[in-house]
Design a protein that fits this description.
Number of strands: 11
Helix content: under 10%
Oligomer: single chain
Number of helices: 0
Strand content: over 45%
Length: 121
């Protein structure tokens, strides 16, 4: 019912910047409640980076505040994550997430395929 296609990511030196994008497509029975970015480093659990609720503004993890900016284009149903001043500890696979609601099915989560971000020191 929902497809998330991510782009961006790659290798960057510490202090550099990257921009991730996620295009969300859905069928008419789906209401997207929030779109967000999560990341998972090797050996660690997946963690929230930033999330935008429908009609609201972005909320950020402490590690992302002041460095990352999440934006949403409602008309195009895309979200972007501008990451500045990247550090080696930001190295992870970044995932786009859609938290959705469907009548009779309730709430569920969909995930993109993930995109690798590697920051060298």
């Amino acid at each position: 019912q929902v497809q998330l296609v991510e782009s961006g990511g790659g290798l960057v030196q510490a202090g550099g910047s990257l921009r991730l994008s996620c295009a969300a497509s859905r069928n008419s029975s789906v209401s997207i409640l929030t779109l967000g970015w999560y990341r998972q480093a090797p050996g660690k659990q997946r963690e929230l980076v930033a999330v935008i609720p429908r009609g609201g503004s972005a909320n950020y993890a402490e590690s992302a505040k002041g460095r990352f900016t999440m934006s949403r284009d409602i008309a195009k149903n895309t979200v972007s994550l501008q990451m500045n001043n990247l550090q080696p500890e930001d190295t992870a696979v970044y995932y786009c997430n859609a938290h959705i609601f469907q009548i009779l099915r309730g709430r569920s989560d969909y995930w993109g395929q993930g995109t690798q971000v590697t920051v060298s020191s």
